[in-house]
Amino acid sequence: MQYSVLDLAPVPEGFDVAQALRNTTDLAQEAERLGFHRYWLAEHHNMPGIASAATSVLIGHVAAHTKTIRVGAGGIMLPNHAPLAIAEQFGTLAALHGDRIDLGLGRAPGGDHAVYQALRRVGSDDFPGAVAELIGYLGPRRESAAVRALPGEASHVPVWILGSSLYGAQLAAHFGLPYAFASHFAPDALEQAIEIYRRTFRPSEHLSAPRFMLAANVFAAQTDEAGAYLRTSMQQAFARMRSGTRGKLPRPVDDIDAVIGVGLRRSVDQMMQVSATGSPSKVRQELADIIARYQPDEIILTSQIHDHAARKRSLTIAAEVMKTLEPALV
Prior knowledge:
This protein has 330 residues and is of the alpha/beta class.
């Protein structure tokens, strides 16, 4: 099973965006060394704790500082952009870095209503139509077309549909595209989305059989207690989002219930239920359980951890765990 990394380029409390981007570069190089298959970055706006807003730019930077790992978007929020512009951007990335570039597409704005207005939503509200238009620009040469993506045309950059609801599953199945579910923060519709995607999938020139990627949080450390401690940064971040508070990725705390309250912590834990937290043996068991339950074709792991060194250790443990799981998954 291929395993990959989803990075939101977190900006930890006490640090700035420049350091966050250096951390992303370093983490991508470590992920490549550890054997991860993909390194994806996601478009978010107006969020002090996330530095990946200019996603295409950051993908180019990461690709330039790595050699073999696939680099891509998980994802680009297509309604924020003209399909032609995204085709040109990713066509340029493919021209520079070869067959290492992925393009995951989502339909949310990647921010709140103020972001929606500030972006002026240059794309079409017809998301399926915009996806089809974009795929057309990346497809075979069309010498007679009035508008061509140059670069982009004939690049055949792989397109994924991303989602956290049944809509994305239906759309990916309709187009015959691979599908990635945001189960690391929105797991409620996960099982139903997988079933719909696999049952209604229509083979296409892009893909002959359904390909489903599951996203999971990983907070791995030497002990269960240390892993739970690292997890508290993400728990606080989600709790703040629930209350409409934005900020950088919080420092971990010893007693999460004392900071956000038992009720809110339970709600946050429901959002984060597709997670593996703790020592290597506990993370191995929890990842094995997730894979056995949902049967993904790929898994993409995200570790929103305040301390960069601890985040790299978590990634190392996750890679070692996935290697030990591989014989059991064959």
